[in-house]
Amino acid sequence: MSAVLTALYSNHETAEQVRTRLVQDGFPTDRVQLTSRQELGQADVAPAKELPEKLKQYFHQLFQNERAQRSAQRLERAVLDGGAVIAVHPRGDVETQRALALMEDSGPVEFRASDLQNQAGEHAASSGSEALSWIGKIMVAPLAPHRTSPGAGG
């Protein structure tokens, strides 16, 4: 399971604006998900046939431990009642803080977070020297301008 932040909004339109801001800020679209009655998002691919069961499967996948199951149930109910949920899968402290700030700007009804401590190895979006030492391990080969392609004479 990976880290996830969710924000519940009272309507689809507000959540849609938040998703747009997150993507414009640089969050990849595959790590920002909107779920509402108007747009089921990833919940739509759940194998269940009925909407309540689709939502249950989707949110329980996001919140897998027993304590977090109450969060999943709350979000299911909220979507069924007309609310909308944005789920963001941040990578590192920097993305976590940026997502929280962008989500909070639009006045969510509530926030939920799960597994934020499970972001090991996600150094690209972490602050501090840890990221610099990781970047230092990347090897870059110089361009070879006179290289010929296989099969070309030379």
Could you describe the 3D structure shown?
- There is one protein chain.
- By secondary structure, the protein is an alpha+beta fold.
- It has one domain.
- Helices cover 36% and strands 14% of the residues.
- The protein has five helices and four strands.
- It has helices at 12-24, 51-62, 69-80, 93-104, 129-135, and strands at 4-9, 32-36, 84-88, 110-114.
- The longest helix has 13 residues, at 12-24.
- The radius of gyration is 20 Å and the shape is globular.
Question: Quick recap of the structure?
Answer:
By secondary structure, this protein is α+β, with helices and mostly antiparallel strands.
List strands and helices in order, with pairings.
Layout: E1 4-9, H1 12-24, E2 32-36, H2 51-62, H3 69-80, E3 84-88, H4 93-104, E4 110-114, H5 129-135
Antiparallel strand pairs: 1-3, 1-4, 2-3
The H/E string reads: EHEHHEHEH
CA-to-CA gap between the ends? 52 Å
Q: C-alpha Rg, in Å?
A: 20 Å
Mean pLDDT: 79
Low-confidence stretches: 121-150
**Overall helicity:** 25-40%
**How many structural domains?**
1
Structural class: alpha+beta
| Separate helix tally | 5
Strand content: 5-15%
Rough shape?
globular
